[in-house]
Amino acid sequence: MREPDCDIPSDAIAIHGITEEMVKGHRLDEERIQDMLNRAEFVVAHNARFDYGFVVRLFPGVASKPWLCSMSQISWRAYGYPSKGLQSLLAAHCIPVDTAHRAAADCRGALLLLNHVNPRGDTYLRELLQYLSNPAVGMPAASA
Question: 134: left (phi > 0), else alpha (psi -120 to 50), else beta?
Answer without folding.
Answer: beta
